[in-house]
Amino acid sequence: MNDFQLNNKTILITGASSGIGKATALIASSMGASLVICGRDEKRLNETLHALANSNQQHQAIIADLSSQEGISHLIKQCPKLDGIVHCAGIVKPVPIKFIQQKHIDEMFSINYNSVVLINSNLLQQKKIVDNASIVLISTISTQHSYFGGALYTSSKAALEAYCRSLALELASKKVRVNTISPAMVKTEIYENTLKTTLNEEHAKKYESTYPFGIGEAKDVANAIVFLLSNASKWITGTTIKMDGGLTLGYQKID
């Protein structure tokens, strides 16, 4: 048996309509998993569904807004028993600290933190997470590498990292693993939009030069997630894995 395969595993992936969530869904399906994918954009989520490998598997798409209790309840109701969960749904909206209002806090935490906690709690209450399952959370290197306007985003992700350790502790008796991936900048739609709105071409190239291995691809993070979902990671829990292409090594390119 290949411990890196996901055969006979049913896995929920939120935020699967784009970016890291979509890349994870594509790779996980190619590794034999049956998927439950979730997102808000029906058209894009169906594009992911139709692109999944092993169409004979029981793949399922669920349209749900996870920033609301109604959306979470809708998702939970349709979920089967799960061998894995990947929480990729999230938002990034820079707000300088002096302009932060309650509405900004509520919006950021409702999807980046609250939805993760509530989905896990509801699934556990309904006994839909099987023993020996794996739960993967998505944080950011920015919890340790601050940037202007990122206070709310990084705070919501730092809360997830702390939550990960508590959840791992409480589920250890069931051999359920809980880990966090902490990526730096990855080439997704969010990255492209950031370049267009905040950086010119010269500054973009200068920024990218601070990454010894270059800016990451969504599939780079997805590969690590799939490893954590597989039995090959059965001795790993309660940890945060940094993926930053060497950014935080203090590297400086010399021309």
CATH C-level class is: Alpha Beta
H-E string: EHEHEHEHEHEEHHEHE
Termini, distance in Å? 48 Å
Number of strands: 9
- The CATH architecture can be named as 3-Layer(aba) Sandwich
Provide structural commentary.
There is one protein chain. The protein has 255 residues and is an alpha/beta fold. It has a single domain (10-186, 218-240), classed as NAD(P)-binding Rossmann-like Domain (Rossmann fold), CATH 3.40.50.720. Helix content is 42%, strand content 18%. The chain is built from eight helices and nine strands. It has a seven-stranded parallel β-sheet, with helices on both faces. The chain has a two-stranded parallel sheet with strand order 7-8. The protein is globular. The model has no long low-confidence stretch (mean pLDDT 93).
